[in-house]
Amino acid sequence: MMLPTRDPRRPRRPRVLLAVGVLALAVATAACVPAPDPPPPPDVCDAPATSTATAVAVMGPCSRLSVDQIVAWYDGKTRSGTAPLSRAEVPVRDLVALYVEEGKAEGVRGDLAFVQGIIETGWFGFSGRVPPSANNFSGYGATDGTAAYGIFPDARTGVRVQIQHLRAYADPGFACAAPPLANPCVTPRSVYVNPKGKAPTWNQFGGGVWATDPTYSTKILGLYTDLLGKYGLPLA
């Protein structure tokens, strides 16, 4: 049986142009449909309800900023010369992640605790009495008039000490035991925090609360305001 042959005078269908046209139509249609909002980064949430415009809570379910956001801000400061290079025993990204993780475990705002660590260590340059090898990021045990300071075996323990000690200041139900702590207690000096929960906001720090510097809270909240401002967020 003879198969029909194509008439050579009949022009071929422009298949390529047709396919390109269909693709362009699909792209244009997709562009008209708004993309769904991306999910929030892990361990990030809105400001805790316990914060107000003038009082910033120590405790909260998690950090307001992600690890990537905090690291980007920190790296920008070192690149601009505003801050020295970190001399911590672990990379800054690992350190920030520890603050976010340990803070979430104890209900303490890890991003704010990281900023406190910056104030205590001079951007983790450790220009004071506490050396980087101590893994002490909060001035823990470095009381005025002595040469003492806390020494911890690794960075996670140093961050955990700071986070748990902050909870002792902010949580009236604090006890150096697990539970109520999420992890084994590593802050024996919490026995000196009396009464427990006496400083639930960062505004109350300084002048003998955590530090003797009367401008301590102003320094921490000022730097935290700068961090939030990079991402268009208000202090809360």
Task: Give the helix/strand layout.
Elements: H1 15-32, H2 67-80, H3 92-106, H4 110-121, H5 155-170, H6 216-229
Descriptive keywords:
236 residues, mainly alpha, Lysozyme, 6 helices, globular
Walk me through what this model shows.
With 236 residues, the chain is mainly α. It has a domain at 67-167 and 201-229: Lysozyme, CATH 1.10.530. Helices cover 38% and strands 0% of the residues. It contains 6 helices and no strands. Helix 2 (67-80) packs antiparallel against helix 3 (92-106), helix 3 (92-106) packs across helix 4 and helix 3 (92-106) packs parallel to helix 5. The longest helix has 18 residues, at 15-32.
Write a compact overview of the structure shown:
This protein has helices spanning 15-32, 67-80, 92-106, 110-121, 155-170, 216-229. By secondary structure, the protein is mostly helical. The radius of gyration is 27 Å and the shape is globular.
- Strand content bin: under 5%
State the major sheet.
Answer: none
Write down the overall mean pLDDT.
85
Which overall shape is indicated by the principal axes computed on the Cα atoms?
A: globular
Count helical runs. Answer: 6
The arrangement of helices and strands along the chain is HHHHHH
Number of strands: 0
Question: What is the CATH class of the domain at 67-167 and 201-229?
Answer: Mainly Alpha
**SSE-based structural type:** mainly alpha
Unreliable sequence segments: 16-40
